[in-house]
Specification:
This protein is mainly alpha-helical. It is built from 5 helices and 2 strands; from the N terminus they run H-H-E-E-H-H-H.
Amino acid sequence: MYLLAFFALALALSVVTKESGHAMVYGLALFFALAYVLQLFGMILGGVAAGDPPQRPEMPAWTDADGRTHISGDIAVLKAYEEECDRYDAEMKTYQNKMQFVTDTVNLFSPMVNYYAVAWTVVDPSDLSPDDATSRIWRGIAALVAFTSVFFAAAYGKFMRMDVR
């Protein structure tokens, strides 16, 4: 499926461009962009969409003149710190989920990411539940099929409109 996706892209480019040399150059540029630049763009966009990460709460401790760190022994202060840490963990999880959602959405357009998702899940599914593994495999396959279909359809549509003499 991975190779078929880029074959469909190359086919669409060869039908759209007038010269085969231009199609090859455009194809290589798009291959590089889809394989590498899109992943980087997804991570950057995910960071922008998620905003600034939450700030970790300040630990109730101090350092004495000898350079030793002491933690406050006051139970109320430690409880408040623990509550702040729980709130921080919840905010950090929300932040990471937002960032992951945007990154995953952008990466759906990358055949390389989809291929790796399918291949690594099939090779080593040990860290995922069977439902999660199945979901990841089918999502990657569906994205590869959609990518391939779009470019085959574009090539077919353009070819049917060409005046071949």
